[in-house]
Amino acid sequence: MADILQQIVQFLEAAIHAVGYPGIFLVMFAENIFTPIPTEPFLPLAGMLAADGRMTFLGVWLAAGLGAVAGSLTIYLVGRYAGEPAVRQLLQRFGRYLGVSERELDRGIALFNRYGAPLVFFGRLIPIVRPTISIVSGITRLRLPVFILFTALSSSLVNAFWVAVGYFLGENWEAVLGAFDQLQPMLLPAIAAAALVAVIVIGWRLLRRRTTHTHTPIPEGE
């Protein structure tokens, strides 16, 4: 398995060097459809190229984000228009290639029924949920604008982190990746909690501003 992953990483590197930003888009598109494709070694490499001046940080980030949203949207549309029975048949035949099983689909549906649309944002931060969140969103017929918004926000945060790792740490990013893998069970809940607090604070401020404007007193004499 390790040899296969190494070959995939080498292919990803070749894709960047061969076609640049379109290669980043295509790899991220594929990663959101075929979840076994590892992007953790890929995005830091793109960040290293940006640091060397062969790419730009913004260009890498945008290409990765657009690819992630496009791939997620493809899976969402499959779930929405094929329906749950057809999706289950698909997973029975090809689930091992897609990296999603019926058991994971059941778990994703149960979590979505419990937490609703916010799971699209936070679920992409959790490895056991991320592979199923797009197709579950389609099956449950989550509104498309909501799905795209939460997917874009979550993907942008995650991609920015990995690109920054390569951009600022250079070749030392492999050591950071190893440490992240060990600390991931503790870090992911912390990241999700911080993101939730940020969303609540921003939402509260927007609501307060809207309420203030709504109740602005009318000057006397008008």
Distance between the ends: 76 Å
Report the principal-axis shape: globular
The low-pLDDT segments are: none
Radius of gyration: 20 Å
| H-E string | HHHHHHHHH
Percent helix among the residues? over 70%
Mean pLDDT: 75
User: What's the structural domain tally?
Assistant: 1
In terms of DSSP E residues, the strand content is: under 5%
Largest sheet: none
- Number-wise, the strands total 0
Total helical segments: 9
Regarding quaternary structure, what we see is single chain
State the secondary-structure class.
Answer: mainly alpha
Describe this structure in words.
It is a single chain. By secondary structure, this protein is an all-alpha fold. It has one domain. The protein is built from nine helices and no strands. Helix 4 packs across helix 7 and helix 4 packs across helix 8. The radius of gyration is 20 Å and the shape is globular.
Looking at this protein, list some descriptive labels.
222 residues; mainly alpha; 9 helices; globular
Topology:
Layout: H1 2-19, H2 21-31, H3 42-51, H4 57-98, H5 102-115, H6 118-123, H7 130-139, H8 144-169, H9 173-214
Helix pairs in contact: 1-2, 2-4, 3-8, 4-7, 4-8, 5-7
Give a quick summary of the entry.
The chain has 9 helices and no strands.
